[in-house]
Amino acid sequence: MKIGDFAKKFSVKNDTVRYYIDLGILNPQKINNQYRFDENNIETMKEIIELKKLKFTLTEIQKILSLKRITNLISRDELEVYYDILKSKLKEIESEESNLRISKNIIHEKLAVIEEIVNKKEMKIGFPVLFLRYIQCPDCGNELTLNSASITNNKIYSGELTCKCGYKIRIDDGILETSERIERKIGKTFSDYKETIENVNPEYIAILHSSLEKMITKIKREDFRNKIFLELGTGSGLFLKNIINCFDSSNTYIVTDENINSIKSVKNIIEKSGIEINIIFIAGNYFKLPFSEKIADVVIDYFGSLSSALKVEYHPVEGVVKYLKNDCKWYGAYSFFEENSKTFYTISKKIGKKPQNILFYTYTNVFEKYFDRISSSNIGYIDNPQENKDFHFKGDKMFIWNFYGTKK
Question: E strands along 240-386, which residues?
């Protein structure tokens, strides 16, 4: 029997058979440079397959077959050696079974915790009535009047906020929707989790997570009780989902994004989590928020301002500085490309100008203008982009930096 027929008989590849020959556990004859397999080889292959099913490694199978070949297992001493090998494997399997039972119990416990959360009745998040004291018209600065409101447990779920000057905000399902809000399909990255872990470059996720961990570690060192957080461009909610357990009832977290679908997605996730915090969802331009000035104690900009930085003439920091209290803390994560890279050239061509707002020295200049106690951290770079990043060319380094500062 030739190697192809032999491999086919046992449903293995030709390379597998050759590997077994190299290991010496199969010993076919070689005639005219071709292996020939006889009944003895067939019986040996059956035994190899059986031993593999019994969890013996190929190294262990080598030893067993060598023992049989030099002894034929005809004496008591020879059988005792084989007995000890089998006994040792049995103990190994029993130990694995014990460990598997422990693992199985742990998994059952984790599943029970998850099932309890999943099956828990979803809470509904509305706009807190008490927060109306911070609301004002971004056009003229006057107070807004609440009309046709649906209020339950001091939370507004629908209604309209209007100003004498004509400015209006709609409240729908607890979300403040300004006239600047847009409706755009959400990308799959970080919203389709199965898709993410299967297709997104692990290096990309790792460097984002490193940036996120460093930011959260810094935040945890501070006392932010009774503070208001403002996040710019929340997107998929990646930062919020990782820091939400750090908040207590004294905190308020403002989620902003111009895309109403992103806001709805994040709101749905938080409602399903069952984690109760004071949270406000705003769909609209965070340069034109319906809030009084100097409202934010902490600003989070976890890559959220990047798209705006490409659209506006002024820097995103300058667009929101009016909402920052004195001594407001700023925590930001940003990506940069070298000016001579193909990626930077492509972005410039796409927006019709050199994107000054996403240059490293632009950020440092702006931060030095508005903040004290500035510190920055070079997280690293990635030059192998994920599949759906059509603007990032392979080989171009995308640098990730964290910036921290306290408003002057």
Answer: 252-257, 278-283, 296-302, 324-337, 371-382
Tens of pLDDT, residues 197-233: 566 677 888 898 999 999 999 999 999 999 999 999 9
CA distance 385 to 143: 47
**Terminal C-alpha separation, the chain:** 85
Of 408, 402, 400, the C-alpha closest to 375 is: 402
Strand pairing report for 145-152 and 155-162: antiparallel
156 Cβ contact list (under 8 Å, min separation 6): 126, 127, 128, 129, 146, 149, 150, 171, 174
Domain with CATH 1.10.1660.10 in the chain: 3-72
CATH number of the domain located at residue range(s) 3-72 in this protein: 1.10.1660.10
Q: Which CATH class is domain 176-407?
A: alpha beta
- Would you state the structure tokens that stand for residue 99, as one six-digit string? 């460990």
Average pLDDT over residues 261-283: 92
Instruction: Give the position of tokens 């597998």.
Output: 16
Dihedral, 109, 114, 118, 122 alpha carbons, nearest 10: 110
Does the pLDDT of residue 371 top 60, yes or no?
Answer: yes
DSSP assignment string, 58-86: HHHHHHHHHHHHHHTT-SHHHHHHHHHHH
Amino acid letter, residue 346 = T
For residue 236, which amino acid is it? Answer: S
Residue 406 sits at φ, ψ, to 5 deg, of: -120, 130
Of 69, 283, 295, whose CA–CA distance to 179 is shortest?
283
Token digits of residue 194: 């199965």
H or E element in which residue 403 lies: strand 398-407
